[in-house]
Design goal:
Layout lengths: L2 H6 L2 E6 L12 E11 L5 E9 L2 E4 L6 E6 L4 E8 L2 E10 L2 E9 L5 E8 L2
Antiparallel strand pairs: 2-3, 2-9, 3-4, 5-6, 6-7, 7-8, 8-9
Length: 121
């Protein structure tokens, strides 16, 4: 299960996970999201690119991930990231050009960890 890859993508982002409210365009741009496993038998760490446009997030890499969720006006992030039957739930907070939070898998292997994001553009 490469859910960690996916879940963290969460990065993510992840944190960056949206669709966000239209007025939250301060979060639009390209985000680099590092996902680290702290518990479970998932891959140790990954870095992903998440692109937020008009408040909606999408994976910025060649593989397909389904990202759903939102960024609240206060920067709170609540998201889900899925690929096939693998799924990760992501929560955290964005502030300015940085973000941090946690993730946990649902179904399959039980893994969890943290994510950190930096806005790149």
């Amino acid at each position: 299960m490469r859910l960690l890859c996916l879940g963290a993508s969460t990065l993510a982002l992840f944190a960056i996970a949206a669709p966000a409210l239209a007025q939250n365009r301060a979060y639009d741009g390209t985000w680099s999201v590092e996902v680290v496993t702290q518990q479970g038998n998932c891959d140790r760490a990954y870095r992903y690119t998440i692109v937020v446009e008009n408040g909606r997030a999408r994976y910025g890499g060649p593989e397909a991930f389904d990202i759903t969720g939102s960024v609240q006006p206060n920067g709170a992030v609540s998201a889900g990231i899925a690929r096939g039957q693998d799924r990760a739930n992501v929560s955290g907070r964005l502030s300015g050009t940085r973000g941090t939070g946690t993730w946990t898998t649902s179904g399959g292997r039980a893994c969890s960890g943290q994510w950190n994001a930096d806005k790149r553009g």
